[in-house]
Amino acid sequence: MASNSKDRSESVEVGQSSSSIPNGENALDGNKNLLHDPSKFLCGVVEGFYGRPWTAEQRKELFGKMKRWGMTSYLYAPKDDYKHRAYWRELYTVEEAEHLTSLIRTAHQHGITFIYGLSPGMDITYSSQKEIAALKRKLDQVSQFGCTSFALLFDDIDPEMREEDKQVFQSFAHAQVTVTNEMNEHLSRPQFLFCPTQYCATRAIPTVSGSEYLRTIGSKLAPNIDIMWTGPKVVSKVLTIEAIEELREVLKRPPVIWDNLHANDYDQKRLYMGPYSGRSVELKSRLRGVLTNPNCEYGVNFVAIRTLAHWAQCQRDGEPQRPQTDIRLETESEEGSEPQQVPPDVYHPRHALRMALREWLPEFNKARTAPSVLQQRVLTITPGALEGPAPVPIPGINTCMATTSTVTTETASVPAGTVKQLQAIAEEQIIKAEEVPGVTGPVLNSLADNEKIVVPNPPGELPEQPSAESESVPPEPMECNSVPAATPALASNEPEKPTAAASGEPMSVEPAAVRQPEMQVEPEGAGAATTTDSPSSVTMSVEDEEEEEEDLTEDDLLVMTDLFYLPFDHGAAGHRVLKDFQWLKTNCNLVAPYAKAGKGAQEPLPPEVREWYDRAEAFDAMSKRVTRLLKRLFLCENRSLLYDLYPYIWDMECVLSQLNGYRLLPLDNANELMANKSPEHPLTKVHLVRPYRHTDEAAVRGIWSDCSSDRHPSFQQYPELSADRWVAPFLTMQPEHILVLEDDDEVVVGFVAAAPDAHQLSRQVRMAWLDELRTKYPMPKTSPELRSPAENCIAALHNDDTLDAPAAVLERYKGCLQLAVQPSVADASLLKRLVACALAALRTSGCFGAHVRVPCGDMAARERLMNVTFMPIDSVEGGEYVYYGRNF
């Protein structure tokens, strides 16, 4: 069914000029009957995001859900499907045609209108007869597949016309209207949608009411063609009746809302699972329809789509309910608390969320296959994406040429000494579109059989699978510049203070981290204190009684959606996490005196200190709750849904565990340690960062021996030598600055040993421990030329010049550290998170730079340091050691 070169060279006369465009003055009147017929209201889904399209199986499953929920329409418009946008002129092959025909037939069987969208605006020449012929040929082909509804999309394109078009058309709007009207007439005026280049109020030049482009579209576009609109912004927090009324006047018809509320293709770290909100039910009478453009990950969109369907069926808005005593932060949801009772015809977002979660829960127990590895999105920046009126996205994925394969990207090995090292190591990858020659990335096809594997449901980790080419995903949906950060900083808000709060000071000691008893500062007998020996002795809420339950619960899903809510709102749990951590960090100085002096054993704690401990315990409970959610999620039978959710829940669990393990202060120059790539396969092991205990010494030494390069046979005579030289000074002199990584079996699998002042550590070693060490390892009697590697190591202990780092190193990197993680640990991000906690601990002690001394031949240690963005210090050259450093 593919056309040959001769077919493509054929042209068709464009017999319609801009002056012959049908007048649309009465378009609004012609659509009035639609507003009073609920069956004609377009309510459904637009698959219009950038990135990997959904599979045919997922789309067919979606049609079934939409039918049950009373939805009517599906718009096929995946930005990176090969022949939708980048190669819109190309006809579908026989295989692709069969799959697209099957999709259209399935949609019709479920009573869903399948709207085929095409995006020719990137490179079309509007005045070219050949281009018009190609467009007609493509739409005719799809029409033969049984499609009866169409859409032309001109979003995210360069608004400047080619020179040849300027000779024919009065304006850009006239060119688009001419082509659209001709396609409409060619297809005998079917249901037709049009997406303008100025698709939101912020893109209207100069304003919605003053835009000549929009007024031309409204007055000249054929009356039966519906116009799409995203609202005041690309991602709109609220759609108001007043704004829609103004738009209706300009477009001379009610708009169809292309709703990006749940779109997440502009940020690979964000996911939106909150309810449909910010749109009054009263808008329905002023709209032609609403199509939601949701998350890239199909499985996570249950709540987004289900709550839209619920909204469309309601007749009244519910009133937000919030206690009068609440103090709402800027980022807190405006939906209020869930009311006790809601009539069936009333839409309340929080109530709709609860209903959707109740329906979603069984989906986790349906057996579904999963891709070979976790799919991860890579953010692409296009020219003008961050500024200017109309960016030109360049697709990074072809999706209609071969079978689908999905992989995560790997961090490349990086040579030392260049600026690109840090960029290559950072896991959040940004690909500049100007560096992408045309269409790049693996060729994918959402209209062909997907290559999948069946993933069993083992109690342990998933087996490793071979990876294919890495994928590159383009930009945001219609360029979503207006969305705020996912977790806006709370520093600009006035944090809550206890009744006797003092001014915030740098945190010099670890507060009562409930999960880490060794750094407990709460005096004995003070409320629900933990013991100093057992990390499991924490007094917790009733949720701990459910620890052994493996099945997901509705409350688990509520916590998950609260943490990944909406672009402008956090759910209740997410808001509480932010507020509690900000408060704990700001007021940590309140508990420091009690930890240092050991007060409180025979006297009650002041109310403000008691409050600190209560909030720390609540934060710990939430951290454990998310950990439990991650473990339960892994056991669900729906592996496809697991693979969609896992990267986000994994990242959230790691961050909360890290914050809970140490009240982390901001690190100005260490943000990349917090941005990590999730494992390629879900892992059941959950790790904890905690302070070092004296009982961990053997484990720390063993880890160092496993990772050290000191494995020459000569070291067998001195099995403790390597650890004594490199790690024991920290264990003996400054154990309070050591953090260990412990798995959920309470086995130590990694550590970071740090000292805020390397010169002071050397002085302590000389005064209190060096003589003992030299007695244990006498100076070798053999000549230097004949010494073994172990004897050279011993000789270095007897050389005072090797104890201190060079002055050039200490001047910029005052602190020092050593680190290692067992080679068996599969999650490469754990060492980075461990180092982030250690650097935060050094910062609280007044240290803002640290170094590591490594033997020149220890390539494993050097690679380990590069992975946590420690760079070689160029000012120190020669000798048997190399120094790595970084500031933070």
UniProtKB/TrEMBL annotation:
Superkingdom of the organism of origin: Eukaryota
An MF annotation (GO) of this entry:
[protein]-3-O-(N-acetyl-D-glucosaminyl)-L-serine/L-threonine O-N-acetyl-alpha-D-glucosaminase activity
Question: What does UniProt give as the signal peptide span?
Answer: none
Biased amino acid composition, Basic and acidic residues: 1-11
Q: What class of enzyme is it?
A: hydrolase
Keyword terms: Glycosidase, Hydrolase
Query: For this protein, what reaction is catalysed?
Result: 3-O-(N-acetyl-beta-D-glucosaminyl)-L-threonyl-[protein] + H2O = L-threonyl-[protein] + N-acetyl-D-glucosamine; 3-O-(N-acetyl-beta-D-glucosaminyl)-L-seryl-[protein] + H2O = N-acetyl-D-glucosamine + L-seryl-[protein]
Instruction: Give the span(s) annotated as Disordered.
Output: 1-29, 452-554
Q: Which E.C. number(s) belong to this protein?
A: 3.2.1.169
Keyword set includes Hydrolase: yes
The name under which this protein is listed is protein O-GlcNAcase
In which residue ranges is the amino acid composition biased (Acidic residues)? Answer: 542-554
Domain GH84 per the UniProt entry, residue ranges: 41-316
Q: Where do Low complexity bias regions lie? A: 463-473
GO BP terms in the entry: glycoprotein metabolic process
Q: Give the matching InterPro entries.
A: Acyl_CoA_acyltransferase, GH, Glycosyl_Hydrolase_84, O-GlcNAcase_cat
